[in-house]
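Supplementary Text 2. Reproducibility record for the structural model of the 144-residue chain.

All settings were left at their defaults, and a single model was retained for analysis rather than an ensemble. We include the record here because the model underlies the residue-level annotations in Supplementary Table 4.
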Amino acid sequence: MFKKNKEMDKKIDKLSHDVMHNGATERPFSSELNDEFRKGIYVDKEDGTPLFSSSDKFNAGCGWPSFSKSIGSNEIDEKIDTSYGMIRTEVKSSSSGIHLGHKFDDGPLEMGGLRYCINGASLLFIPYEKMDEEGYSEYKKYVK
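Retained model, structure tokens:
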């Protein structure tokens, strides 16, 4: 769908690889994307598919980037995760299959009540002003 660019290749370090391909979790409050609140979109770090919009991002206080929904209806796959003695919903990118994080039903009610708790190590942020240049013009409609 999208061409992998040089910036994506540079961002796939050991932590990103472990999170995306081994289901690891980055330490809370360690991702620079946790505090990123500029306008733009968040894309799959593996293949560049748009996953989340800044319009749906909120500060959940949990230490990971949190979103109330995905950018569309086909970008995220979900499965029950019973690891570590918990019952959670794991979320993966539909396009690349990489692990993103988990979905919970404790998000802000005014935003739909969901919280997609996502590892920043799985995402690349594309600022609104660079979306045309990076080939994401059609996704500007999702950014308010």
